[in-house]
Design brief:
The chain is an alpha+beta fold. The chain folds into 4 domains: 155 residues, Nucleic acid-binding proteins (OB fold (Dihydrolipoamide Acetyltransferase, E2P)), CATH 2.40.50.140; 239 residues, DNA ligase/mRNA capping enzyme (D-amino Acid Aminotransferase, Chain A, domain 1, 2-Layer Sandwich), CATH 3.30.470; 174 residues, 5' to 3' exonuclease, C-terminal subdomain (DNA polymerase, domain 1, Orthogonal Bundle), CATH 1.10.150; 68 residues, 3-Layer(aba) Sandwich (Rossmann fold), CATH 3.40.50.10190. It contains 26 helices and 24 strands. The strands form 7 sheets. A 5-stranded mixed β-sheet has the order 2-11-10-3-9. Strands 14-13-12-15-16 form a 5-stranded antiparallel β-sheet. It has a 4-stranded antiparallel β-sheet with strand order 5-4-7-8. Helix 1 runs antiparallel to helix 2 and helix 18 packs across helix 19. It is globular.
């Protein structure tokens, strides 16, 4: 689980002033916060930070990665889409991933978007380039699959690759056709499920009459209604659907984005009437202004405008980054603001020991939602300074009793943006950030380059121990059925488990006759038996899940899976980590993995060095049969090889070359090492070419590369 109250705001240091140490720490912090935010928003329908905060964090992460590309993390937020699907629904693997969109916030961002596309395609500034512009609906993404004109499947986004099967629920939505005439044999239509403002108000009124839960806003109401296990409940809710995209097709809908939208409308789907064709950035901005002006009168929520290259042939050439298309961008609306009183500041301790300050507010309505909590980020933010000691908010600190400005763009914990000093109580005292952990009284230190103060108590700190155990049983880790956050807290409180290995000795220690467990509140003989069986079932588990479950700082889910694929087996990996220091072949091998930076490498080496943490890992591993990582199956000539590109490529851009290599199963690295299999060197190749020669690495030119991959 993420740290509660995690710092959802950067230290405000301009990126161009960050040194490499600060940049590493900031990227690690951003990855942690945004992973938690993705799960809360996409999987749980219970956002914890605002859209505006999330967008600002994402933009800062991208800016730092652009300045320090060699520090990009494997669990970078720029590589993440959504969150794993929730339990209770069947899982659907999307034939085409459901990706997110990059964000823009001003005219300069739109000009940069247009310029990037032109440079990628080799188009001049004067060449015509049309875009579609459409409102960005604030709802829940849905993919509909039709075969021979019949609706056969509906699935939510999930984590982009795997979503939830909500077919029965989707069939109850009037805007979704059950059958199509003159449609392609296979057609996947994608769009947004939403709820209109009048329908939302009527639903909440009915909920209040029945003393049932009321929804914070239409987006939450739509998401909660679509994801009901009982389809009759969904049917009783006034859901709507706008179609705006497609995935698998047996034949093209059209040769342009606008043409495809018109075709979907002709097939019977609702498409947004404000969608327009625009020629260049100025026309896009003009249409954005038009939509913003009528936003309040639409009767449904939008949070921006989406721009897409109109020509589908050009979309195909532009292709995709790991999580976003190059040919589209979301131009977001500004956040909303409100003022309220800060009643108290509380400190929460998370899994990594981070001490996170949380504001308790007098409840205030911001953008139609009542909020009473805010993240205060870190001690510097409270004091009115950035990590370099520079002023933020004009140097105004934040004190209990202050009148504070908050903003949000969704039903989420807002950010404290400003303080009204004219309303500050005369007896308000500066907030003193604790130097001791409030949970265990261990020292709370702040390492150089870290914006967060952390408890050094480790597993003796109950807050850290419990949060680490919650992370261990989380969905992307061991995912033990019947052992969730609530049960972990209970067992820890009862002194039954202190570390992950203890879970696998529960039955041996407390399962005799099931008496001790089944007599606990909420447990019976059947549930106890089911839990012990679920634990047994997880003794045989994938390498990547084990590594991720350990909760090592800076090592996320994607990084764990990459390391598993790279090293293959658990024994080889642990031996390599145990033998790695900050020099030597194993250290160089670790740093040579594309996407593993020095910060992540140090965390791994520290975790597997002799000591209490390594002992805990070994005790866990003794109870497991860790499966070797599956290697990608690809019969291309470069599958499984590590490739480095250097110099100038003349027949394709570097981005295209990298994307093509990765699609063929190759690993693209930014540096030459003993693990490099192939160097592709264009004109101007320098030190990398020399190092490849020294190491005996095969080197070919761009023509040789194109010949090698051929039609693969």
């Amino acid at each position: 689980m993420p740290d509660k109250g995690s710092n959802a705001h950067s230290d405000n240091s301009p990126v161009d002033q960050l040194n490499e140490t600060d940049a590493r720490a900031e990227l690690a912090r951003l990855a942690h916060i945004m992973a938690a935010a993705n799960s809360a928003y996409h999987r749980d329908d219970a956002p914890e930070i605002s859209d505006a905060d999330y967008d600002a964090l994402k933009a800062r992460n991208l800016e730092i990665e652009a300045r320090f590309p060699h520090l990009k993390r494997l669990d970078s937020p720029s590589e993440q889409v959504g969150a794993a699907p929730a339990e209770g629904f069947g899982k659907v693997t999307h034939t085409v991933r459901m990706l997110s969109l990059s964000n823009a916030f001003d005219a300069e961002d739109i000009a940069d978007f247009d310029d990037r596309i032109r440079r990628y395609l080799g188009l001049t500034a004067e060449a015509p380039l049309a875009y579609t512009s459409e409102p960005k609906i604030d709802g829940l993404s849905l993919s509909l699959r039709y075969e021979n004109g019949q609706l056969v499947q509906a699935a939510t986004r999930g984590d982009g690759a795997v979503g939830e099967n909500v077919t029965a629920n989707a069939r109850t939505i009037a805007d979704i056709p059950q059958a199509l005439t003159n449609a392609p044999e296979v057609l996947e239509v994608r769009g947004e499920v939403y709820m209109s403002h009048p329908d939302f108000e009527a639903l909440n009124a009915r909920q209040a009459e029945k003393s049932d839960k009321q929804f914070a806003n239409p987006r939450n109401a739509a998401a909660g209604s679509l994801r009901q296990l009982d389809a009759s409940i969904t049917k009783s809710r006034p859901l709507r659907f706008f179609a705006y995209a497609w995935a698998a097709l047996s034949e093209p809908l059209a040769d342009s984005q606008m043409g495809a939208i018109e075709r979907m409308a002709a097939l019977g789907f609702q498409t947004n009437p404000l969608t327009a064709l625009c020629d260049g950035p100025d026309a896009l901005l003009s249409h954005y202004a038009k939509i913003e002006q009528v936003r309040a009168t639409l009767g449904y929520d939008i949070d921006g405008v989406v721009y897409k290259v109109n020509d589908l042939g050009l979309q195909g050439r532009l292709g995709f980054r790991s999580t976003t298309p190059r040919w589209a961008i979301a131009h977001k609306f500004p956040a909303e603001l409100a003022w309220t009183r800060l009643e108290n500041i509380e400190i929460q301790v998370g899994r990594t020991g981070a001490l996170s300050p949380v504001a308790r507010l007098s409840p205030v309505t911001v953008g139609g939602v009542v909020v009473s909590n805010a993240t205060l980020h870190n001690e510097d933010y409270i004091a009115g300074r950035d990590s370099k000691g520079g002023d933020i908010r004009g140097g105004k600190d934040i004190r209990v009793g202050d009148w504070v400005q908050v903003y949000r763009a969704g039903d989420v914990i807002p950010k404290v943006a400003d303080v009204d000093l004219s309303k500050r109580p005369k007896d308000a005292e500066p907030f003193v950030f604790p130097l001791l952990c409030p949970e265990c009284q261990s020292e709370a230190i702040r390492e150089e380059g870290d914006a967060v103060r952390r408890c050094v108590g480790g597993l003796i700190c109950p807050a850290q121990a419990v949060e680490k155990l919650k992370h261990f049983v989380s969905r992307a880790a061991f995912d033990i059925e019947g052992l969730g956050a609530k049960q972990v807290e209970q067992f820890y409180r009862d002194d039954w488990i202190h570390e992950p290995a203890d879970i696998f000795t529960l039955k041996e220690r407390y399962g005799s006759g099931m008496q001790q467990l089944k007599n606990r509140e909420g447990w019976g003989e059947k549930s106890a038996n089911n839990l012990f069986q679920a634990i047994e079932d997880k003794r045989n588990i994938e390498f990547g899940r084990v590594l991720f479950s350990l909760g090592i700082r800076h090592v996320g889910e994607q990084a764990s899976n990459l390391l598993a694929r790279t090293y293959g087996g658990w024994s080889e990996f642990t031996e390599a980590m145990g033998g790695a220091s900050h020099e030597g072949p194993e250290w160089e091998r670790l740093l040579g993995i594309d996407g593993v930076g020095e910060v992540m490498a140090k965390s791994l080496v520290t975790a597997f060095a002799p000591g209490a943490e390594r002992d805990s890992i070994d005790r866990l591993a003794a109870h497991l049969a860790v499966q070797d990582a599956e290697q990608p199956q690809n019969d291309s000539p470069v599958a499984g090889k590590t490739v480095v590109f250097t110099g100038t490529l003349e027949k394709m851009t570097r981005a295209e070359a990298k994307a093509r290599a990765e699609s063929l199963g190759a690993k693209v690295s930014g540096s030459v090492s003993t693990k490099t299999d192939l160097l592709v060197a264009g004109p101007g190749a320098g030190s990398k070419a020399k190092k490849a020669t020294d190491l005996g690495v095969e080197t070919i030119d761009e023509d040789g590369w194109l010949t090698l991959i051929g039609d693969a």
